[in-house]
Amino acid sequence: MEDKENAGENISSADADPEIDVAKSRKEIFVEAQGNKLEDKIEKLEHELIQLKEEHLKLSNELSREKGYVKGVTDGSFNQSFQKDYDKEMKRHIRQLKKYNELKDLGMGIIQLIADQKQSTLRGIMDEMGIEPDDK
User: Fold this and answer.
1) Which family does it belong to (predicted)?
2) Co-location of 61 and 104 in the same domain
3) For 108, phi and psi rounded to 5 degrees?
4) Shared domain check, 89 and 67
């Protein structure tokens, strides 16, 4: 009787193994399919990257011709020239901003002196002069 029970257990354990194998094979198929999809996606993105790089080069060369640059983008001269122009413009902007702030501080100082002379508030003098608070 024990042999029959053991035989039944062997059959059920043998039946369980194919189910596990089927589950594994389904999982393997799914993973393989996902891998193929990812590989296809990677290939597509790499192709798109190449196209974008070609388009960038084309547009950069076109821009350099329009700006009158003799050298092309490939040797980096355009980017260096662009960076120099950018740095020059940024320095000019900073100089103008400093000048503006100095003039603004000077104007506010003069208005404060007038307010002190008239024994008034800064806001009162600004209202008399027609200067809006946002104009400070």
Assistant:
1) Belongs to the SWI5/SAE3 family.
2) no
3) -65, -35
4) no
